[in-house]
Please model this.
Amino acid sequence: MQVPASGPFGGLSVTLTKATVSPREPTLYTLSIANKVTHAQCAISKSDIDFAAFRQRICAALEHGHSCSAECPWMYFRVQEAKPRRWLFMRSKHRQVQANLATHQSMLTSLLDFMRTPRNQSCGRATTVVPSEVARFLFDGMDDRELGLYAASPMSKYRMSITPNLVKFAIADCSICKNCMDPEDPVSAALTTLPCGHVFHDVCILMALHRQLVCPRCDDEGKSSTDNSSSDDSDSVVDLL
Model:
């Protein structure tokens, strides 16, 4: 399935190109990272231990059991299943590594598709917490300039903020309260996407819809259009009834 190049990782591709097997050291997998929008490319190495820790953090970020309309439950079980198999019979080291490489690749591809699917952008965890963990896994150690080449296209509605030990992704400001969605704030992480595609804090949009059953953004844009022209702007208001 072709997934639109949108969201915090629009245009990004991650491919496991090879595995380096050593008799005494952990197997290292080489990940080739590229952004087709900025044409930036780099390569990193991760071990099975790194992937196991990453899988645990993603499962915690998805918080199985939370209520949303996105595909979070499916993604949670998909990541849970992405564990290297334990073989009942001895196999060659290289065959085991090949199987693990395919498992790791499948999990990363599923995660990128999950974050870029429009339906999943209605969930605060899918748009903030999960991308933060993916960025931590792929781009740990990069400065803000380097990270910007890979993790945010110019047309993305997402923006990045970087602190010394934490990468956060946040969706654009709520147009009602003018505050940004903070993934660590339970209120800010709860988002509602209206049929027109505009996103708001749950608390903000509930109060606005209690006053009038129209999208506040569409209503504002319609009023602005009326001020600038005499044309009928009734199509700019989305009726939620």
Summary: The chain has two domains: 12-171, 173-223. The first helix runs from residue 48 to 62.
